[in-house]
């Protein structure tokens, strides 16, 4: 079978899957809209047992599975209080970063109610909810930009919302509010904080945050490096921080995602200082097979179905998103792995997660690691936008799949 014919076969399969996915989503949308918001004393309904023995602990920033009944303590609200174990003058001394006209102290950096902005020219003006948080939380409010950064690129322990489709972003906030999206690992504290923030946001604040992050571009932020050894690390707030530069510790089937510069990332929250993801040797190539074909093989001119669906079916061949399906290329592998495992365990259970649950159902921990490695290694910007060629003539339910076919044909040239 020629390369062109193989691409055509894969494209036809993806066309069918895309049509099914769109019909499923349209049916869910017409059936009932968003779910009701749970009150503070309500909990989500019962779910299947979570298989913690399969947990990618590295993705959640833990070294062991949770004990029965173990859960996260609430995160302390932002504060400007001086830390008693640090020098007061050092905490209040104004700092500068290269290329920035702003000056902030460490107290300012830690004040999540008033998000610092080293490079305001990088993005549109921050809405109040991004800079200060949901108004109804009062003194305990926390700006979205304090965790996700004003540029929306986020960090390995949270999410990178920059460039997400507005409709997708709104669905995720609604899923947090209604209780159908939570962390499979109950010890992860910032997920609970996100749920509290989502419940406190007004519809107007949700829309402002969605439109702000949706307007941002996501440029390269993660450097993926295959290796057999990594630096020794410690875990602080579910984030790996290197304690030495030399690589002496076996990577041992993990992804270790650390700041390129610990001081810039941790002390100053510098949005120009990114991260390096150390991944096992060979994981990017294994991930390429799973991501691009779902593990499908052609044996004696016969298609042998793989264990999953090619990610390009919905996310686009370049993984930069299609319509309201989010971009995933170049995003944090820790975040990508957490989302796959949360969906697999049934704790990310919103309407748009249902098809993904089928996609991830048969993935092993090694598969999840490989997929996350490859996805993180891909350039986050789209080389071409083939959907523009078909949007004018194709209904939305067909556009998603036609886009994949056009992209596949362009690669064949």
Notes on the protein architecture:
The protein has 413 residues and is of the alpha+beta class. The chain has two domains: 3-33 and 287-412, Orthogonal Bundle (Cytochrome Bc1 Complex, Chain D, domain 2), CATH 1.10.760; 80-214, Cytochrome Bc1 Complex, Chain D, domain 2 (Orthogonal Bundle). The protein has helices at residues 3-32, 57-60, 88-92, 106-110, 128-131, 144-148, 166-178, 189-200, 203-214, 262-267, 283-293, 312-315, 333-345, 354-360, 365-377, 387-390, 396-412, and strands at 222-227, 229-236, 239-250, 256-259, 275-280, 297-299, 302-304. A three-stranded mixed beta sheet has the order 1-5-4. A two-stranded antiparallel sheet has the order 2-3. A two-stranded antiparallel sheet has the order 6-7. Strand 6 and strand 7 form a beta hairpin. Helix 13 (333-345) runs antiparallel to helix 15. The longest helix is centred in the N-terminal third of the chain and has 30 residues, at 3-32. The protein starts with a helix and ends with a helix. 41% of the residues are buried. Mean pLDDT is 86; it is low at 3-12, 14-46 and 384-413.
């Amino acid at each position: 079978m020629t390369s062109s014919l193989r691409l055509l076969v894969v494209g036809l399969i993806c066309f069918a899957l895309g049509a099914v996915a769109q019909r499923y989503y349209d049916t869910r949308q017409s059936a009932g809209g968003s779910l009701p918001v749970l009150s503070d004393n309500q909990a989500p309904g019962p779910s299947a047992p979570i298989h913690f023995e399969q947990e990618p602990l590295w993705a959640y920033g833990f070294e062991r599975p949770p004990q029965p009944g173990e859960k996260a303590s609430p995160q302390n609200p932002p504060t400007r209080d001086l830390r008693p174990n640090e020098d007061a003058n050092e905490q209040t001394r104004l700092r500068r970063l290269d290329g920035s006209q702003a000056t902030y102290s460490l107290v300012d950096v830690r004040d999540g109610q008033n998000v610092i902005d080293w490079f305001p020219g990088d993005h549109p003006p921050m809405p109040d909810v991004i800079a200060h948080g949901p108004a109804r939380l009062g003194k305990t409010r926390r700006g979205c930009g304090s965790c996700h950064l004003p540029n929306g690129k986020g960090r390995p322990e949270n999410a990178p919302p920059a460039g997400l489709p507005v409709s997708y972003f709104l669905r995720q906030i609604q899923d947090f509010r209604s209780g159908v999206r939570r962390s499979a690992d109950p010890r992860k504290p910032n997920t609970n904080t996100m749920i509290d923030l989502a419940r406190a946001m007004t519809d107007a604040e949700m829309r402002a945050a969605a439109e702000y992050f949706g307007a941002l571009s996501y440029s390269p932020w993660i450097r993926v490096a295959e290796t057999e050894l990594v630096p020794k690390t410690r875990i602080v707030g579910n984030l790996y921080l290197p304690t030495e530069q030399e690589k002496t510790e076996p990577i041992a089937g993990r992804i270790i995602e650390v700041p390129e510069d610990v001081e810039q990332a941790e002390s100053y929250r510098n949005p120009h200082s990114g991260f390096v993801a150390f991944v096992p040797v060979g994981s990017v190539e294994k991930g390429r097979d799973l991501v691009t074909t779902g593990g499908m093989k052609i044996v004696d001119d016969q298609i042998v179905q793989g264990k999953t669906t090619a990610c390009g079916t919905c996310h686009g061949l370049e993984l930069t998103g299609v319509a309201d399906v989010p971009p995933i290329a170049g995003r944090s592998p820790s975040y990508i792995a957490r989302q796959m495992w949360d969906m697999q365990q049934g704790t990310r259970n919103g309407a748009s997660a249902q098809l993904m649950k089928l996609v991830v159902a048969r993935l092993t921990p090694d598969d999840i690691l490989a997929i996350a490695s490859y996805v993180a290694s891909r350039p986050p910007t789209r080389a071409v936008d083939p959907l523009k060629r078909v949007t004018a003539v194709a209904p939305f339910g067909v556009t998603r799949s036609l886009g994949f076919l056009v992209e596949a044909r362009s690669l064949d040239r």
